[in-house]
Write a structure and sequence with these properties.
Largest sheet: 7 strands, parallel
Shape: globular
Mean pLDDT: 84
Helix content: 25-40%
Distance between the termini: 29 Å
């Protein structure tokens, strides 16, 4: 919810308008959000007597009947827009399909849409709500580790446009976010590990106690879905609850004064200086958590080489990444890639590196004066250190597969599965089905396939404007991206 207060003053040549917008929204930790013993969610829709939900197909298949029973229990009419959003379908076409459902439902001006799913779903549906009548309310229920820990903190919503990632979007806060970590019971371990990186990020630079708990319970947290699987030790669940609450709270404290990202020195950008390039360089792209882990591990080595992070703390950071099975290096991470990634981020960050690094562990400083020679020396040192770690710093299940974009069902590509019905009880609620209508195939967004070289990935890791986000055109074999029909990146 927001509240705008403004003043208008006459000036010699006209008028001066000064406005301030109050933004407020709530988070509720709740295990079993669709359990009929928990009336919290129903209370948000009681005055309307109904609910339009936009939800991910995988969540619909797993929880659709339970969700239908929940709304039936509270005598609330439920209508569902079922979607399946990967990067290919994070498009304006998918957004417009959601808008069609809002029209068909007859959404009222202040009536909140319910959005259930991972970060891609909340991004697109959130932007649809931001655009619909310029400001329609929505309530979020994130269902992945990254969605719960990281994306839930932000008020950014967006879709991709052409080959531009998140090029169209807005800042639009939800009315409420329900944080139900019970969804992690059914989340694949590879995705648990992927989200674990975000907790390492915030704890390394801002919350030492959380880092210590991650160290202590690393393996158990990943193996038990943060203490949510059957038979998980009570101590692990209690530790997970403390970690999750502290991590989210710390990120909210850091980000709330900068919700519109006017300030560019951001603690939670640790791991996001060079990672956009890492994410797309391999022929099969890295998962986001692994890409930022490579960046974080190298950044820690850079801080250690500089003498602002002790040897002992440096080893603790690398040790946690290794135990979690997260990537710390890959063979295509070389000096050439490092220079290209640095040029790209300088444009994004208004000419300054603003590299967040731990110093000491649990706190953060920003580096702006790192020379190319110093970065190269740190990279050589990092490569030498990685030889002593399992897999030479490579991660487990580090690369995306079809499940990351929502295109598999029962281990088969969704494009090849016909006649899918899903849970029977919730079928009556479906108002629109993007999967049935083929929208999950999406638009022409580049999904990282065949990006086997840094030069190709560069155009997808760029700043907001310019050729590849660099100050000069990037040339490969005498060909610029424009002459080859390519466009620049995110």
């Amino acid at each position: 919810m927001s509240d705008l207060k403004a003043t208008v003053k006459e000036t010699k040549d006209g008028f001066h308008v000064e406005g301030y917008e109050k933004i407020e929204y709530d988070f509720t930790f709740l295990d079993g959000v669709f359990d009929t013993s928990n009336p919290n969610l129903a209370g948000c829709y009681e005055k309307w007597g109904r609910c339009l939900a936009v939800m991910d197909r995988n969540i619909f298949d797993t929880y659709g009947d339970q969700m239908q029973a929940y709304f039936d229990h509270f005598n609330l009419e439920l209508k569902i827009h079922k979607t399946m959003i990967g990067e290919k379908a994070k498009s304006i076409e998918t957004l417009l399909s959601i808008v069609d459902s809002m029209n068909a439902f007859g959404i009222f001006r202040k009536e909140p849409v319910l959005v259930v799913g991972g970060g891609l779903v909340t991004d697109v549906a959130g932007f649809a709500c931001a655009a619909y009548r310029r400001n329609t309310n929505y309530i979020r229920i994130p269902t992945t580790v990254i969605g719960l820990i990281d994306a839930s903190v932000s008020i950014k919503v967006a879709v991709n446009y052409g080959n531009y990632k998140n090029r169209l979007g807005a800042y639009h806060a939800p009315q409420h976010t329900f944080l139900d970590f019970g969804f992690l019971r059914t989340l694949p371990k590879a995705q648990i590990r992927n989200g674990f990186a975000e907790l390492i990020k915030i704890s390394t630079c801002a919350h030492l106690r959380t880092f210590e708990l991650l160290e202590k319970y690393c393996d158990e947290l990943i193996d038990t879905g943060f203490g949510r699987t059957d038979g998980a030790p009570k101590a692990v669940k209690e530790a997970a609850d403390e970690i999750n609450r502290a991590g989210i709270y710390e990120m909210l404290k850091l980000e709330s004064p900068n919700l519109h990202e006017i300030g560019l020195d951001r603690v939670i950008a640790y791991g996001h200086t060079w990672s956009p390039m890492h994410e797309l360089v391999p022929e099969v792209p890295f998962r986001h958590g692994h890409a930022i882990s490579i960046d974080m591990a190298y950044s820690a080595t850079l801080a250690n080489v500089r003498g602002i992070l002790s040897d002992a703390e440096h080893k603790r950071i690398l040790g946690l990444f290794s135990r979690a099975g997260l990537s710390m290096d890959h063979h295509q991470f070389d000096e050439d890639l490092l220079e290209k990634a640095t040029k790209a981020i300088l444009r994004t960050r208004d000419g300054k590196l603003r590299a967040a690094v731990p110093s000491p562990l649990g706190k953060c400083v920003f580096l702006n004066d790192v020379s190319t020679q110093e970065m190269h020396a740190a990279l050589r040192q990092h490569k030498a250190i990685m030889k002593d770690y399992p897999r030479q710093g490579a991660g487990l299940e580090a690369f995306v597969d079809a499940s990351d974009t929502g295109y598999t069902m029962n281990k088969k590509p969704a494009e090849n599965v016909n006649g899918h019905q899903g849970p029977k009880g919730a079928q009556k609620a479906i108002i629109n089905d993007d999967v049935r209508d083929g929208l999950y195939n999406g638009g022409p967004i580049h999904d990282g396939a065949a990006t086997s070289e840094a030069s190709v990935a560069a155009k997808h890791a760029s700043g907001p404007e310019g050729i590849n986000g660099f100050s000069e055109p990037f040339v490969q074999n005498g060909v610029t991206p424009e002459s080859n029909g390519a466009s620049n990146g995110h």
